[in-house]
Design a protein that fits this description.
heterodimer, A: alpha/beta, Rossmann fold, six-stranded mixed β-sheet, B: 275 residues, mainly alpha, 2 domains, two-stranded antiparallel ribbon, 10 helices
């Protein structure tokens, strides 16, 4: 059989870059295969995908050596439009990919461009809408859809073309965990029904493996580092070396001192054979210590009986109450649109609550203006591009002080001090545009930090970041939290984040507070996880599979152990550096 | 969020008409109203426009705010005519019947009042037609219509995609504005107008940058799905002309011809009750 995609000694260099982004790629993907491509940011995995859908070299030009065949044909002969008949791409940003004014039009977009007669379009759109289960939504506008629904529409939009290859660019990035699970399931069903070749690019390996894949290709520094079955891959240390997070249950089993064997089928926790590992994991659990309890601290931010609605009778938030102590790191979680952002808007004073009170250090904040609250409660938005408004780093960080009329000398001193904390001091005279995304994120955090807030709220601080950048940002926040004693609240749907970095999770579902507990307890409680569109952690299944009857304590000890190890490696690195 | 002057799905025969028909009606209607000063025709047009407006089941909240704005312009227009050209009525109708004197060259004449009345009526013939056109025409279908009457589909699609992203950009604007306000940039009435204008830049720049990210994604998405492949494209939302469309077009054309014929029958486009 002829391969669907074949790279032979393929290299690619973007025009603006010195070094090739892809080197010596040799890769064959057969028709009907389902392949997962993983790799850290900047590894070249997105470029690899762009070579398949034609954005390289038709939109992003550069030099190609070696050969590439898609469906047996040379992409150069097919052109971008010819390729679009073979390869359908579902982009990461499903919001941006949504072009039509309604679902039906968006699905029909490719057909319209192909001059398909209107009557045929009606039939085809109905048929595809049925397949991805959006038939009821055909008349709806994009803003009326949830993230998961938008993604289904995106899928339908590329599938109308009867493509042979479906390419998913980080399909999980913008979805809450439960919706992500459904997306992976839908991709699986499509592949089974239509025998389409599927490529999934994703760095959330554990979530992507919710359904079987045939192969995983690991890309690192522009080369293919591994090309093997999931079972084989999980046995090795390749993922760790490349800075990709292993499934948590695999890490836990490895911590327990076990060597994992491919024949035990480690791809899914539910079906993995546990005989070899059970006792060792249990032993490890017994001898590992949990997290030390945090000493009682005074209240930093307290919310009492909070209600909010735009329209009377249609409440967005109801009876929300919690008490966050000084110096805590807390996550606010729940499915997209559950009211998390509304809550932070209320705390910052952008909206006024219909009922209820918010206290900062025991004082009602209602009389404070947005600006006055902003001095005590800092808000960092999801994307630094949403905040940065000055061309120079210094000016950007100084902005909050300048508008408050702080004397120039003091501004300089405070900005420099903040830049040092954020590791940006060497760049103080640089333009913002010269920074990487992660550095820009730091600038946006610095511009809040400079005002010495007591509480900092971050909206999805790690969205779209790979494991390395995620760790970098989160360790930085942890440091701020520990050294400066700033209370940190994060709005997120990243379960790893809440589990690893926060002491408490406030769970909101459909406008109600449904849990306020340790993340380990929340993520091992099926009812709560279901209601809030979270996914219970695989550590839960591992604990049960090993006969440990306290899964949340197991998760707790796992996280404490991980932190301890991280500290050790950090210390070791410092020693070697010094 | 308030949806002012935007399309709303309703089931009336006006909504079911093709965008082409409504566009032709709209253009001819405005042209006729612009050319004629024949009060009899104008009054007929107002009555017809109001009937059509009623049939289209347009609600006050869809158009009220804009209507008030137009009224302000109308009042301004009426006063401007009087201030700059108090004898416009006499110039048009040839007679001068003074009702009372104000000051200097400013008299109030019957002719002027009649002329101003015609101007006001003209406004009221066009306003319902504009509103009706905007709120009953699906933007995608309108793009399809433009394309059908020979306008490049790029223009039609540009309009349609702008409409698609307006709510997104509005949402983004609010978010950025909030975040900058929290950083201490005053956008409320407390700050002076000049500093508010200056402060707008702290919202506009981030908005431009995040919109640029969006544009990149959208243009890639469009290309990947074959936009611009052929010189022509078809439209999912396009409507074929039906019997009602032909009737409506025929009526519009006939009405315009008759209206203009009556208007110009005596060689002047003004109806003159004074001679």
């Amino acid at each position: 059989m002829e391969p669907m995609i074949e790279f032979k000694d393929f290299s690619f260099k973007y025009r603006a870059q010195k070094e090739p982004t892809l080197r010596d790629i040799n890769l064959k993907i057969m028709p009907g295969e389902k392949v997962l491509i993983v790799g850290p940011s900047g590894s070249g995995k997105s470029t690899l995908a762009h070579c398949v859908n034609g954005l390289v070299p038709f939109s992003y030009s550069g030099d190609i050596t070696g050969t590439l065949r898609i469906g047996g044909k040379n992409p150069a002969d097919l052109g971008l439009f010819g390729l679009s008949k073979i390869v359908g791409t579902v982009l990461q940003d499903t919001d941006g990919q949504f072009i039509g004014l309604t679902v039906a039009e968006d699905i029909a977009f490719a057909l319209e461009n192909d001059n398909v007669p209107q009557e045929d379009m009606f039939v085809k759109v109905d048929e595809i809408a049925e397949l991805v289960d959006v038939k009821k939504l055909l008349e709806n506008a994009p803003r009326e859809l949830s993230g998961g629904q938008k993604q289904r529409v995106s899928m339908a939009g590329v599938m109308v073309d009867d493509v042979d290859i479906l390419l998913f660019d980080e399909p999980l990035a913008n979805l809450d965990p439960a919706t992500g699970k459904r997306a992976i399931d839908l991709i699986d069903q499509i592949q089974k029904k239509k025998k389409t070749t599927i490529l999934i690019i994703e760095h959330r390996l554990e979530d992507a493996l919710y359904r079987d894949v045939d192969r995983i290709i690991v890309v690192g520094e522009g080369r293919i580092v591994a090309d093997t079955t999931p079972d084989q891959l999980l046995v090795t240390d390749v993922l760790k070396e490349q800075g990709i997070r292993e499934p948590l249950y695999i890490t836990a089993i490895k911590h327990a001192g076990c060597q994992i064997h491919a024949e035990d089928k480690p791809m899914h926790m539910e079906t993995m054979k546990m005989d070899r590992y059970r006792d060792k994991v249990r032993d490890w659990f017994d001898r590992t210590e949990g997290k030390a309890a945090r000493p009682e601290a005074p209240s930093a931010l307290k919310v009492e009986d909070l209600y909010f609605s735009y329209v009377e009778g249609r409440p967005i938030l109801q009876h929300i109450h919690f008490d966050i102590k000084k110096g805590e790191m807390v996550s606010i979680v729940g499915k997209n649109g559950a009211g998390k952002s509304t809550l932070s808007n209320l705390i910052c004073g952008f909206y006024k609550p219909t009922r209820g009170t918010i206290f900062l250090n025991g004082k009602d904040v209602a009389p404070l203006s947005i600006k006055e609250r902003g001095e005590k409660i800092g808000l960092v938005m999801q994307s630094p591009n949403q905040m940065i408004s000055k061309p120079m780093i210094f000016d950007e960080v100084a902005l909050g002080l300048t508008v408050r009329g702080v004397p120039e000398e003091e501004i300089k001193e405070r900005v420099y001090r903040t830049l040092k904390i954020c590791g940006l001091y060497p760049f103080r005279n640089w333009p913002v545009s010269a920074l990487s995304f992660g550095q820009k994120k730091r600038v946006s955090i610095a511009s809040i930090l400079v005002m010495d807030p007591e509480v900092m709220i971050l909206d999805e601080p790690t969205a779209g970041q790979d494991y390395r950048h995620y760790t970098e940002i989160m360790e930085f926040l942890k440091e701020i939290n520990e050294t400066l004693g700033i209370t940190i609240i994060m709005i997120t749907h990243d379960m790893h984040l809440m589990l690893e970095y926060t002491d408490r999770a406030i769970v909101i579902a459909d406008g109600h507070l449904i849990a306020d507990d340790t993340p380990a307890k929340v993520l091992t409680n099926e009812t709560i996880a279901d209601k809030a569109y979270l996914k219970k952690t695989s550590l839960y299944d591992l604990a049960l599979g090993c006969g440990i009857d306290n899964p949340s304590e197991f998760a707790e000890r796992f996280i404490a152990y991980e932190r301890e190890k991280k500290k050790e490696t950090a210390l070791a690195e410092e020693k070697t550096d010094g | 969020m308030a949806k002012i002057l935007s399309y709303e799905e309703k089931d009336t025969w006006i909504h079911r008409l093709s965008g082409v028909t409504k566009l032709i009606f709209f253009l001819l209607w405005c042209l006729t109203s612009m050319l004629t000063y024949d009060t009899r025709i104008l009054v007929t047009m107002v009555v017809l426009a109001l009937i059509i407006f009623k049939i289209s089941r347009t609600e006050w909240k869809q158009v009220g705010a804009v209507f008030k704005l137009v009224l302000v312009f109308l009042v301004f227009n009426v006063f401007a005519i009087y201030i700059f050209s108090p004898d416009q009525g006499t110039a048009v109708y040839g007679t001068r019947t003074v009702l009372f004197h104000i000051a200097g060259r400013y008299d109030v004449t019957k002719e002027l009042l009649f002329y101003e009345l015609n101007v006001v009526i003209k406004y009221f013939t066009v306003i319902p037609a504009v509103f009706m056109f905007l709120v009953t025409t699906n933007p995608s279908e309108f793009a399809a219509s433009l394309n059908k009457i020979g306008v490049s589909y790029n223009i039609g699609y540009a309009i349609s995609i702008a409409l698609r992203y307006i709510p997104d950009v509005q949402g983004e604007f609010t978010k950025i504005k909030h975040a900058q306000e929290a950083r201490g940039i005053e956008m409320s009435g407390k700050a002076s107008l000049i500093s508010r204008i200056k402060n707008t830049s702290t919202i506009i720049f981030p908005l431009i940058f995040s919109s640029m990210d969006r544009i990149d994604v959208v243009s890639n998405a469009m290309e990947l799905r074959g936009y611009g492949k052929h010189k022509k494209r078809t439209w999912y939302m396009g409507k074929k002309l039906q019997r009602n469309d032909y009737l409506a077009i025929a009526f519009t054309v006939a009405f315009s011809v008759v209206a203009l014929a009556i208007t110009f029958a005596d060689g002047s486009r003004f109806y003159n009750p004074f001679v």
